[in-house]
Prior knowledge:
mainly alpha
Amino acid sequence: MLIDRKALDNIRSLQSQGDADILSRIINLFLEETQNQLENLQQAIRDKNADTVYSIAHSLKSSSANPGCYEIISLAQRSGGKRKEKRIDGYAQFVSTDRKRI
C-alpha cells in the first residue's frame, strides 16, 4: 500500500512532547478500523445490500484520506458501481482481489 509521506508528516506535526506516539496510534487505529470496514463490506456484498455497501465504501474512502492512503481511495473509486442502479459487483472485486494490496 502506498502512503503519502506528506500526510504522515502532517500527523507527526501534531505530536506533543511527552505524549504517546500519535502517528503510531493513528496508524494502528486506521488499520483496525479498515479491517472492520472491509469485513462489514464483504458481508454487505454477500447480503446484496447496496445501501450498506455504498455507505461503508464512502466511509472507507474518507478515513483513508487522513493517513494519506490514497491508493485505497483510488481502488474503491474504480470499483464503485452505479448507486442509482444498486450495482455492487465492482466492490466484490475490490474486497476479493484488491484487498490484498491494502
